[in-house]
Amino acid sequence: MNVTRGRAAEVLAGNWLGSSTVPSRGLYPHQWSWDSAFIAFGLRHLSPARARRELLTLFSAQWRDGRVPHILFNPDTPPEAYFPGPAFWQAGRTSGLVQPPIHARAVLAVHEAEPDPVFLATLYPKLRAWHEYLRTGRDAGGRGLAAIVHPWESGMDNSPAWDAPLSHVTPSTGFVRRDLEHGEAADRPSDEDYGRYVRLATDYRDSGYRDFGDFVVEDPGFNALLADAELALAEIAEILRLPTAAAAHREAAARVEKALQETLWDNGFFFARDVRTGSLIPEYTCAGLLPLVLPDLAVAPALVAAATGHRFRLGRVHGVPSHDLTAPGFDPGRYWRGPSWFNVGWLVRQGLLRHGEHALAARLRDDLVETAFRTGFAEYVDPLTGAGHGTRSFSWTAALTVDLLA
């Protein structure tokens, strides 16, 4: 275990830029939003100061409307190293999209590792503005759920759940993909899908980052993490001796959780909903398991049953498959269409612990640690064989391994 922790620490040191950590040196040479939050969970055990710096750097790029952009670009990285880069987004040093809001939980964890009231007081109003933006500015369906306007905002970019909402988007052409220079084409999104991503991003940019466009989806994973983030923010408010604010955050969490169950729960699972059509998207993906992180989730027993059933076989495969193992489109190696990702496994383990599933959580933890070390801290793995895919020396894989070993 000491060897595994040491190797993970080396990965994080190698990807550290001085004020933030890149997910990987080649494929992802900038700072990503939810990556940095996951990285902070691990860094807090190695260097709480670095973990604080990671999060403070990210929030230094927060927009005036409260959103936390999904990429903060490193000015020392050549423009041709990544597409779409800052020139595409026309938003200064950031992109205009967001990613799942796990930051409040990360801030709380970093503070608990080494209490720092100034750090907490600095980030609390920023976190509050971030959540307010999501709960109000992104409530496209009027049901109290935050909508994503691009697959990249889910963090699960190439999920089969996005195929139907994307089907009417005309792909862009004429751009150069940089991701294929660092990864196998069979592991990455198709050219047609990538073209749709670029088209959506272009249209959103040209709208001034204000309008809901052709892709408007309520994602169960995103909203479950928002509800949990409000619970974390309530704990932060209590530490800062703001009892009225703490109560408001708990009420906000309860509203999101209620809307989540009333809107996205059907037949024993949580599904994404296409706001434009009003229909649930009948794809069983790992996003539908993330509501397990909510400690008071009434349907948790049924969701655990779904996780351990034939579609995901939790505890009998490596990690948590990103897509239904029985689906015709299941692909064990292609980005979010079947492989297991370490951040999802880590989140599902948190949920299992919160609902008393300690034995299953322990099996998942042991598998995640062993697989991470064996694959050289791969970006994601084949859930059936455990073979590594994507880039190696991936930061959140290393960071969450450190956390699991702590």
Description:
- The chain is mainly alpha-helical.
- The protein is built from 14 helices and eleven strands.
- The strands form four sheets. The chain has a four-stranded antiparallel β-sheet with strand order 3-4-7-8. It has a three-stranded antiparallel β-sheet with strand order 9-10-11.
- α12 (342-354) packs antiparallel against α13.
- The termini are close together.
- The mean pLDDT is 95.
| Average pLDDT | 95
- N-to-C span: 10 Å
What is the topology, as strand order, of the major beta sheet?
Answer: 3-4-7-8
CATH-derived topology? Glycosyltransferase
The Rg value, from CA coordinates, equals 19 Å
Tell me the β content: 5-15%
Secondary-structure-derived class: mainly alpha
Label the overall shape.
globular
Biggest sheet architecture: 4 strands, antiparallel
What's the CATH class, please? Answer: Mainly Alpha
Number of strands: 11
